[in-house]
Amino acid sequence: MRSLVIFFGLLMCSNVAKAETGNSSKQIQSNASPQLQTLSDIYPWYQWKKVGEATLEWGIWDIYNSELKTPTGRYKGTEDDLALIINYLRNIDKDALLDATEEQWQDLGFSSQQITPWIKTLSTIWPDVKKEDRLTFVLRNGEGQFYQQGKPLGKVLSPSLSQSFIAIWLSPKTSYPELRQQLIGK
Fold first, then answer.
1. What phi and psi values does residue 55 have, to the nearest 5 degrees?
2. Structure confidence at residue 58 (pLDDT)
3. What is the pTM of this model?
């Protein structure tokens, strides 16, 4: 009986060591040592705290509801980790989304040399959206990733594309300053 208890004890220690090794490799993959881990590294974006929310209206139509989340629930700037969640209230095809995005970037002062490759990249990622679809843009460690209904869309985006995309909503020069103020909790 004693040897059985020792065996199970060794088995448990072995499993704990494997679990700790598994966690260590995850920390290495996220490029964060245990001492430097942030809330963003520890908690998935969908567990982050809400900063603010807003609804985009166009004339008499509501287009989408949006919500901004950060690990702390406070907005400090676009250099920090954040998630922009957009719940669509109407059907919008991919080309209309791309056209609207391009127009917003032009209004923000980006050049056509910058915009053209960004639009090309987004055209390979974005779907047509239907009423009640949820698209989320997560900015973590300077790089962005899109999700639809919580599942990743496409590849991780470059820092320049990530910053330009989030600028549409969060830049002080946005076309929708009231929406920005609501999102950042002002």
1. -120, 130
2. 86
3. 0.76
